[in-house]
Design goal:
The chain is of the alpha/beta class. The chain contains 10 helices and 11 strands. The chain has one domain (about 1-285): TIM Barrel. Helices cover about 40% and strands about 15% of the residues. The longest helix has 19 residues, at about 80-95.
Length: about 290
Amino acid sequence: MREGGEVLWRCRERVIRFGSRPLIMGILNVTPDSFSDGGRFMTPEAAIGHGLTLAQDGADILDVGGESTRPGAAPIPPDEELARVVPVIEGLCRVWRGREAPLIAVDTRKAVVAERALAAGASIVNDVSALTADDGMAAVVRRYQAGVVLMHMSGEPATMQREPQYEDVVREVAAYLDGRVADLCAQGLDRETLALDPGIGFGKTLDHNLQLLARLDVLVRQGRPVVVGVSRKSFLGKLTGRETGERLAGSLTGLVYAAMRGARIVRVHDVRESVDAARVLAALDGEHTT
């Protein structure tokens, strides 16, 4: 729904009204095996400290994840995922109690993890399965009126990069996400709580990723905030020949490109540099349009 042409995103008590730059969602992986930063922030203390650094660097949202969804990753038991993410969310909320702070998202496909994370203070559920992996997820997010990121993924993380095929990747991804919005609204979710993510790198080839980014306007026209994550992903390595830790320039270029095509939220590892890029883009775009 739009008010005066404005796309709103409702995340529990907070209503996000987007400005001239995309929001920066900082990645906080509490995992041993994520493709870029796995194992770096495995203890609650290390993860909380990194979260505070990302907030100081300008993150608008912190995305806390306890299960890797990189290509080839295997699922983990709910208890293990809970033990990783809940202490981190609780710790961040204790530090920020009563202060203006970034929103906290939980990156999970499990209803029990989402419920415990929301009870601990998270406001957003970022679900790579678009709320299809767990039958209880829709009821949890409806009960909390949480913000939701619905992502398109072909298959499961363990198998998604085994020769993904589409007749028209943009049309098929857009139709899938539009269908998920319709289904969830029919289940009682508020449309204004839903955001869309085309799932760059999740069951897509290099060409699929490039097509989705080039035609991002197709998703934008569906009237919900679009989330894009390109940070350090393998398609950037294919384009540049750079290893994972050397893809900052490619990541920032992808961020700017996505923002220029209407992405409202960008999911990144390098928050400080991404905030700078987003601010410069907003200033240049404002100068161009005034």
